[in-house]
Specification:
Blueprint: E1 3-8, H1 15-23, E2 29-33, H2 35-38, H3 41-49, E3 56-60, H4 62-67, H5 70-73, E4 78-83, H6 86-92, E5 101-105, E6 115-118, E7 121-123, H7 125-138, E8 142-144, E9 153-154, H8 155-169
Parallel strand pairs: 1-4, 1-5, 2-3, 2-4, 5-8
Antiparallel strand pairs: 6-7, 8-9
Helix pairs in contact: 7-8
């Protein structure tokens, strides 16, 4: 396995994901982990129909993902795993390999969030704390950027800035 990319994106699959991630890295295997989409055959079909010809999308539930042995089932090339929320990333975090994996926060623009990470990525303090916890548990940095060639923002830097701001106010 060259690399497993875990991406949080509340739009799941769209042009930036297809052109920027799937085509850029020639990703052949994509797993969309979402309980609602996994139980709705129409929604799953719509997402599958957006895939490039040489890419295969599996839509599975969180529980099904936790049963996968991704290091043995997907041995060649890149694997892209997409979840729609930081909550879902937390649920599957026990199945994030310590080696050869990368965690990317892409688009999180829905909901009420007060921390602006990028122009289309907003989180709240609880989500930031959750990401830092996942980062520390998995010995991985978590980065926010829309496209792979953009400069990534390390979420730890955002967290450290938040802590400094709180201390200055206190």
């Amino acid at each position: 396995m060259e690399r497993i990319i875990f991406r949080v994106d509340d739009r799941f699959i769209h042009g930036q994901v297809i052109e920027g991630w799937i085509n850029h890295f020639s990703i052949k295997n994509i797993i969309l982990v979402n309980d609602c989409i996994a139980t709705d055959l129409n929604k799953a079909f719509i997402y599958k129909s957006t895939m490039p010809r040489n890419a295969k999308l599996e839509v599975i539930s969180v529980d099904s993902f936790l049963q996968l042995d991704i290091l043995n089932e997907y041995k060649k090339g890149y694997l892209l795993i997409i979840v729609g929320s930081i909550h879902d990333l937390k649920l599957i975090s026990s199945n994030i390999p310590k080696e050869n994996s990368y965690i990317n926060i892409g688009c999180l623009a829905t909901g009420t969030r007060d921390i602006s990470v990028t122009d289309n990525c907003f989180i709240n303090k609880d989500e930031l704390d959750c990401l830092i916890n996942i980062s520390e548990k998995n010995s991985k940095n978590i980065y926010a950027h829309k496209l792979p060639w953009e400069k990534p923002i390390n979420l730890k830097d955002i967290h450290d800035t938040q802590i400094k701001t709180i201390k200055m106010k206190g």
